[in-house]
């Protein structure tokens, strides 16, 4: 059985939630960087064009990390000019000064840096301590800000860490404040291994607010590893967050399960937000069609439940 | 990457939520009734035993509908005696007087009737109007109550209906009150097509409470068709609900998507509840092992994200 007639959710607002949410679409970067095969540059460009056409206003386009680390996004220099004229925000990931040079030379006006709340992941991902990573980002952020570039600070492992277990809230707050102090315009709190539950989300947001990092400066980035991403998002909205990261079609695989998802699927998020009467600007039908089209290119079905339901696909 | 060490969620309670939730496990009935193939009676019995052993206190065991309508559960007479001595509540579905006779003759002490909030689904499922169906249940409930049997009233299509679209709240309230008035001990509000969002859940629970159907008499039965089940559950908990229906491993297929789920997976629910510090009595590891074992019998992977993550299965 399908949704009532239109394939759109019924609208019943709930008190205390924001009127509008900005979706930070991470599919082309965070989703595709985990793909085993190489996606052709023109397909990536078309993906970003379709996402913009579906009404997404922020589409993280690619990454200027060294191609050795993320070969899937080694075509950043070729891709970015193909989409840079689109009337949407196109942040790009930048790990260091060299990456910033590459991004600036192509006219990028929004960058993101990628920090960690835990020593273990800072070591694994950046081969640095948390503070060494922050020190590496500091001049990058300063130069970006001097060039008028908008800076997002990603923070990984904000809830649990596969090596360290539960991550103390004060530890997350400390790195958030350091990122804000160095000039980041916004932060994205990542539940990189998907273990958070709604009370934990509420606790972290409350602690950040008490330490002068308001929800208005924060995005949330939940993974659906244990199916918790949308419930956690609801808790974040109830605590004033208005920016939510998501990946079209749930792109971004788990390392251990072929059809399992890492990222919250944008379509599942949009279904909830529109049902709550929260404006996103997104056309759910067009977005779903885009994810079905992309799933065809990748040769496997989307893990998004909304995509599966609306596309009536046998998967 | 996996959960921190133990494979259990970290515990961070949230204010205003119940200390304990009763999970009404529907896998053996609602899950298996949608299976194409016949599951051997002994496998069903072992499934129920394992669920009880995992700490579930209410396991809906089978259905005494006419075998013509649900051939998958035609072995109810053989199955029930195999499990009836288990120290858990074992409600059985009963559609009419004949079904009640069969259930009582086997010593069932808990039954459930299955009503609809919409005319279209009452017609499709029971070939009756809503009021004709209620009239059919009335003597069944009366006789069950006279025999000291606990009665649950299921109500389908409480939010949206595939033929009628959005279902007005007052229409749902009317049928709920009729079921309570005829003597049901508890109701289960079904989002049969999975279209609800959290504001809609809150609206219905608020309307029911205002009309003297308190949340303490209610269970919620969400489907994950659009990925909304857990967020809707959180909204229900925030409005005082303490009984949640779920299906081990997410058993209970969608008619249009092989690996898509209908029912909220018990494991995904338990992850959230335990993360919130809410007691369920369930051992998540044992429950997950049970769903993996059952998935082996059914020859396809569980759609539960928590089962997939904890079992590290390539699916």
From TrEMBL, chains A, B:
Residues 21-288 form the Pyruvate carboxyltransferase domain. One of its GO terms (biological process) is ketone body biosynthetic process. Keywords: Lyase, Metal-binding. InterPro entries: Aldolase_TIM, HMGL, PYR_CT. GO terms for molecular function: hydroxymethylglutaryl-CoA lyase activity; metal ion binding. It holds the Pfam family HMGL-like. Belongs to the HMG-CoA lyase family. This is Hydroxymethylglutaryl-CoA lyase. It comes from Streptomyces chromofuscus. The lineage of its organism: Bacteria, Bacillati, Actinomycetota, Actinomycetes, Kitasatosporales.
């Amino acid at each position: 059985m399908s949704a009532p007639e239109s394939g759109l959710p019924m609208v019943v607002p709930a008190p205390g939630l924001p009127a509008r949410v900005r979706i930070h679409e991470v599919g082309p970067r965070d989703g595709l960087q985990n793909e085993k095969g190489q996606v052709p540059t023109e397909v990536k460009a078309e993906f970003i064009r379709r996402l913009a056409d579906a009404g997404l206003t922020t589409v993280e386009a690619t990454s200027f990390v060294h191609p050795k680390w993320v070969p899937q996004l080694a075509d950043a220099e070729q891709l970015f000019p193909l989409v840079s004229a689109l009337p949407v925000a196109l942040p790009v990931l930048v790990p260091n000064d060299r990456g910033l040079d590459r991004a600036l030379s192509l006219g990028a006006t929004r960058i993101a840096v990628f920090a960690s709340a835990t020593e273990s992941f800072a070591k694994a991902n950046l081969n640095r301590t948390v503070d060494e990573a922050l020190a590496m980002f500091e001049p990058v952020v300063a130069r970006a800000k001097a060039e008028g570039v908008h800076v997002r600070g990603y923070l990984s492992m904000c809830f649990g860490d596969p090596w360290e277990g539960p991550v103390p809230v004060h530890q997350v707050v400390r790195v958030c404040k350091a990122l804000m102090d160095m000039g980041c315009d916004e932060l994205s709190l990542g539940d990189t291994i998907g273990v958070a539950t709604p009370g934990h989300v509420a606790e972290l947001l409350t602690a950040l607010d008490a330490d002068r990092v308001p929800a208005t400066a924060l995005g949330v980035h939940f993974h659906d590893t244990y199916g918790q991403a949308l419930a956690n998002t609801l808790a974040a909205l109830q605590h004033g967050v208005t920016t939510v990261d998501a990946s079209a079609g749930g792109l971004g695989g788990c390392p251990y399960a072929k059809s399992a998802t890492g990222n919250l699927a944008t379509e599942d998020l949009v279904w909830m937000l529109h049902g709550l009467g929260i404006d996103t600007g997104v056309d759910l039908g067009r977005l779903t069609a885009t994810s079905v089209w992309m799933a065809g290119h990748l040769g496997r079905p989307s893990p998004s439940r909304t995509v599966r339901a609306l596309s009536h696909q046998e998967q």
